[in-house]
Amino acid sequence: MPVLGIESTAHTASVGIVAEGPEVLSNASDMHRPKAGGIHPREAANHHVEVLPGLVRQALDRAHLRPAEIEAVAFSQGPGLGPCLRAGATVARTLSLLWERPLVPVNHCVAHVEIARALSGLDDALLLYASGGNTQVIAHGSGRYRVLGETLDVGIGNFLDKLWIALGGSFPGGPEIEREARQGSELLPLPYSVHGMDVAFSGMLTAGLALAAKGAARPDLAYSVEVTAYGMLTEIAERALAHRGQGAVVLGGGVACNGRLREMVRAMAEARGTSSFAPPASLCVDNGAMIAWTGLLAHRAGLRIAVEDSAVLPRQRTDQVELPWRS
Ligand code: AMP
Ligand code: MG
Predict the structure, then answer these.
(1) Which of the four CATH numbers 3.30.420.40, 3.30.428.10, 1.10.10.60, 3.40.1080.10 does domain 3-112+285-320 have?
(2) 180 Cβ closer than 6 Å to some ligand 1 atom
(3) Which residue of 98, 225, 244, 321 has the fewest CB atoms within a 10 Å radius of its CB?
(4) Closest by Cα among 76, 72, 67 to 14
């Protein structure tokens, strides 16, 4: 039977229903778009509380399913913004009790890995996970997903969004920067901050704002930010590939919707004699279907959680999670 999954870690509330395969039967989402500035956790959580009941109904309707046909209810337990996580967890607990179905906790980052792994058919690939709040290079090793490299400050998406909003654009900034960058041609000097397999973006944010204050053209700035930031991600993915000596690269996270990043990673992988894969955009961004799919794997491996033990874990790390379905 299919599993229903609830995602609510940050700006997006989403409910997906997924069957064996993975076959995505539905994936209903609603993104909180702040009128000004970045995400305020409490406001995003209020948004999620408002839209989640309707999204549950939409997900069931689109999948042509009744609650009795759902095997389990999965939810993003962490990492993420506390108030947002609690909104999704509360809905998941309610459905679990109401429908008398097991409750299954899912780590959000692991879910990005699992949906990309399943869709690509690449069992031992490296994941470049580039989203709003997270930027990590992840590989499977000794029973866990290991973080080989990550951002030392903000996630790349938060960096792009923050820069774009400061330049007068709107949220989310990543797709708008991508459009603007197509008109840019001059590569402006920005800090290229790679430390081993880690990256940092705050220096580029400061430098980008300084260039804008000096009158740099927005298209050139957008182009330069893309080339520099995606170059950094491609470099750490390549270093991780070189250390592992095997495997392909899969992409995940909202920033993995970006055409330039996809192309840079594809060219790098091909030059190393391997390949890359990126899921369709709807399964790259935060979505309920990836939570449902990972919940299905976990539930079939015997994982479930009692409602009284199901507190959210805003700081849960990718490598803290056991993977009974992979052992
Ligand atoms: P997520 O947290 O995984 O849902 O990803 C959200 C982030 O993805 C936001 O920071 C967006 O700006 C970013 N994003 C979405 N589409 C694109 C794109 N085409 N290029 C760059 N960033 C993007
Ligand atoms: Mg994400």
Answers:
(1) 3.30.420.40
(2) no
(3) 98
(4) 76
